[in-house]
Every structure is written in structure tokens, then in C-alpha cells.
């Protein structure tokens, strides 16, 4: 009954032995990527909508964590296929994948916290070790200190909760109807909002994205941001009354934040910065709608986590495809790419259009569900949401047009891309635009 846990442990040990003792195997990263994909498909038939299933050693999963576990394995499988670095980098990514899987599987708040922070330490190491420039140290410390300010008080609050309830099990805490001091609740909530991140606390993410290696950016955008959303989702079922008290404040902050950040996207000249800011915008609309506590909003936020994870990860990989040949992420330098890599320009359009919520992508379905929840809560928000949809369309098209069209400044030849790069990009786009066929699960 507990095959997922055993699968992960066996695969991790097998990969670790491969890395340590069989370093001369050709295409080791492709082998590992394919193994992860196979295990993912083996686990698909177990999916059901029971509240908690396969409880074992404080590890389990339910309908909110299963999709994120699938997303984690999918993204890491694609990352392993694209990695051309040494076994040190491979092992770090394996450790990060296992820690993220255990975050989504943990039923105990303390276990959740430990693996939650362990994953951030690994991302910090990746940014500092394999970052692009000397500014990676500044970015790493931004990431560390933004999260440390709220992470240490969160540990004290967890022990305080254990003293109050004698249990940190999510399932038991949801049934206890616990109450918490508002000041302590603010600290507990902010530890998740900073990692999503919420507007006004988003500075670390922009710096981390710009300096992180491409696989670090893919992991940050597709999975690490979802840890904050998943943690907040778990808290919402435990502290409903406290969330209702802060409901209006969070919605007001994010409603202005998504508009300001959308306008910021139009003033950026670094491709990574635009994608990073658009990630904060999508997470902002997700938090806004989930705070209404409607079922359609919570499911829309859950689908937004999955859809944004696929689209933003694909866009960061596309930026790396160009950067690996031109050694620049500036949009002024990388113009007229449709002349050099026309097939890749098609993939740019497909992923940019999915990012802005075009039919039939999962982004559109999740955004419609989020907007329905917000308008049902307050009709006045329709004005802000119209502007959000408009700006989302504008900066996505701006990103695509600026890179692929215009006057060519490059004087050296650019290749159209490798076959494995097209495969990885299609494996981002195909699930993103075929998931709407299975919406009856919701």
C-alpha cells in the first residue's frame, strides 16, 4: 500500500549508486530522466479523490498534493534529460527532488517544515555555486535572509502548536478547530506568503531568478513557489477564522500588486526578469482568489499551480536555449530570432500564448475559475481583473515579439536547436494543453 514511498527510496538509492560507482556511463542524465518518467506513469493509476490515502510514517497524499507530486517528478525528469554537468550537480538535483516530494507527502507540520527549509538550502547552494555572475552571492543572501526572518519564528510557533494540541498531524489539526493568537498567525502566514511570494516581499525572487542557472530557475518557478501555496492551502483548512480576518487585507494588497507588477514587465529588458515578474503576478491572482474560500477558487488555485509550473518552466528553458548560443539575456541583443531558429520561434509563441491564458491551455481554465470566485465575492473586482487580463496579454506578446521579430544585431550564426531541446519543450506544452480533457475529476 505504500509503494510511492518505496519507489522513491529505491530510485534514489539506485541513482546514487549510479552516480558514485558508474560515472563513465554515457548519457547518465537521460537514463535518470527516463526512470523518473516511468515511475511517474506507474503511479498514475493510484490517483483518487479520497481525502487522505496510504498514510504511513507521517507520509501520505491527497487530492491537493498528488498533482504537485506529479509536477515535481515531471519537471525534474525533463531537467535531468537536459543536464550536461557533472555528477555533483546531478546529485544535488536528486536530493532536491526527494526533499520536495517529501514536502508534498508529509502529513506532519514539523516534517513539512524540515523538508521545506532543506529544499531552500539546496536552492541557495545552487544559486551561489552555479550562478551566472558575481552577483549570485547577493542573490543567494537575499533568498536566505528573506526566508530566515520568518522561518525561525515559524519553528517556535510549530512547537507552540504542539503544546496546544498535542499533535501536528494535518488530518487531526483540521478536525480540532484550533485557535491561534493573531500576531503568531501573522508570522505563520507570512512564512508562506514570502515564499509564494506576495507583492512587497518579492525582491528575493527576482534576484534569485536572474542569477540562478536555468535548472535552478525552472525548479524555483515550477515547484518552489508552489510550496508556499500548498502550505497556505493546508493552513486554510486548519485556521479558517483567522484567514477570514485577514482576507480583505491580502486581497487589496494583491489587487494593486498584480497591476503594478504587470506594468513593470513592460519596462524590463532581461528575458528572465519578465518571466520572473509574471510568475509573481500569477501567484498574486491565485492568492487573491483562494482567500475567498469558494470551492471553485481553491480548485482554480490548485490548477493554476500546475499550469503555471509547466508554462514558466518551459519559458525559462527557452531563455537558456538562446543564452547558451548568444551569451546574453538582453532583449535588445536577441532580436530577429525567427530568422535563426524558426522552429524554436513557434515554441516561443506556443508557450507565451499558454502563459497568457489562451485556449485550450490549463492556464485559461484556472484563470476563469479564479476570476469567477473573485467576482462572486465582490463585483467591483471585475475592473481590476479586466486590466489584469489585458496586461497579461500585452507583456506575453511583448516578450514574444521583441525576441523573435525586429532588426538583427547579431553577426554570428545561431543554430536552430538540438532535438532533445525540442522534446523537453514539447513535454512542457503537451500536458499543459491536454489536461482540459480530464477536468471531470474536479
List the helices and strands and how they pair.
Blueprint lengths: L2 H19 L6 H16 L9 E4 L2 E3 L1 H20 L4 H19 L3 H22 L5 H30 L4 H7 L5 H12 L9 H9 L2 H25 L1 H26 L5 H20 L4 H32 L10 H4 L1 H14 L6 H16 L3 H24 L14 H16 L8
Antiparallel strand pairs: 1-2
Short description:
By secondary structure, the protein is mainly α. It has 18 helices and two strands. The protein has helices spanning 3-21, 28-43, 63-82, 87-105, 109-130, 136-165, 170-176, 182-193, 203-211, 214-238, 240-265, 271-290, 295-326, 337-340, 342-355, 362-377, 381-404, 419-434, and strands at 53-56, 59-61.
Structure overview:
The protein is an all-alpha fold. The chain has helices spanning 3-21, 28-43, 63-82, 87-105, 109-130, 136-165, 170-176, 182-193, 203-211, 214-238, 240-265, 271-290, 295-326, 337-340, 342-355, 362-377, 381-404, 419-434, and strands at 53-56, 59-61. The chain has 18 helices and two strands. The chain has a two-stranded antiparallel ribbon with strand order 1-2. α1 runs antiparallel to α4 and α15 runs antiparallel to α17. The longest helix is centred in the C-terminal third of the chain and has 32 residues, at 295-326. It starts with a helix and ends in an 8-residue tail after the last helix.
